[in-house]
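Entry 12.
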Amino acid sequence: MDLDDLILVSVDDHIIEPPDVFARQLPSKWADDAPTLVQRPDGTIVWRYQGTQVATLALNAVVGRNPDELGYEPTSYSEIRAGCYDVRERIRDMNAAGVLASMCFPSFPGFAGRLFIEAPDKALSAVILRAYNDWHIHEWCGAAPGRFLPLAIGPLWDPQLMADEVHRVAALGCHAMTFSENPDRLGLPSLHTDFWDPFWKACCETGCVPCIHIGSSSELTMTTMDAPVDVVTTLAPFAIMKCATDLIWSSIFRKFPDLKIALSEGGIGWIPYLLDRVDRNYLRHRHWTGQDFGDRLPSEVFRSHVLTCFIQDPVGLANRERIGVENIMWECDYPHGDSIWPLCPEEFMDEAVGLTDREIDLITHENAMRSFQFDPFLVRPRESCTVGALRAESADVDTAVHTTGIRRGRPGQTMEQVMANVNV
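Predicted 3D structure (tokens):
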């Protein structure tokens, strides 16, 4: 397949929320209680809500930046691309990278809405959360029909409220909701309880896909605090591997046979090993552990229910048949530190050696379209959705690397030093 003929749908990108998130969707009676954006004396920005403040960390918004200047420190709007928070500029940046459509995870509320989970006034948080979802669906995604796959946040402290929100946003065309890779770490019941059943049931009824992002348990995968930060960035995907193991051995998929769950930003290269491991464990130990998958193996359950995605993963693509080509989706991760913007199609084609055109279409857009009930071709003709056509629409976008002259990274930094510098 020619690079310009690719159609790219990214199932994992991010929003750095603009200051006016709650300006129009939140009823005025709660306006004074909404999260507030505050600029600190050093120019960095934080969101404040119910006694908590959350900074936007530099690694969350680095596209177009000099890699030598990256770090964990809080940042400001002046240091990041407008496409991080301005939807019109985001579309132009997507065009420049040849990306047709994007699913955008939240930033300041946390990938799974941790800010609202931990806030003491849950009734207020439910109102704020719904207003955030309305902003995301109507103002962010609604600004450019056919260019975004809507993604809602759920009120994880109450699974029945989550079920209600699943039905509410489904009526608005949203068929994805964030979830935590390990709710136990958030002080909530684990995946091995029936606490979440109302949510799983609502997802089956509407075709909603819970999307579990690495880091959504708000716990870093690490060894020791004096280990180099490289240990943490290397181990990041392994939290989602632990989550996948929980899902396989839980009763969720046996109780809800129509449920699909997506694992976001966790990569795919580890999956063949995990599937071999769970099958071997099942066959050797099921007689005393009591596990019973009927006439299926655990690996078959995984392939029937779990959707996966990758940014760059040549090992995973080489083993795509063992993972299930129908379950693999592509991601850009704009504007995070692992993002391959603006060279998304070039990077993908470098790793797509040996893939058939049919496999490429499934991985780059068809799996995402099917899984999230998304059809951009109803909005614009297919020939206008290709890398070549999109890049031609925004050929004037500046994709050069820019520098601020501020060097944040320091060789050999430990996690203890990094966390001290965050100073949130």
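Annotation: The first helix runs from residue 87 to 97. The CA atoms of residues 176 and 209 lie 5 Å apart.
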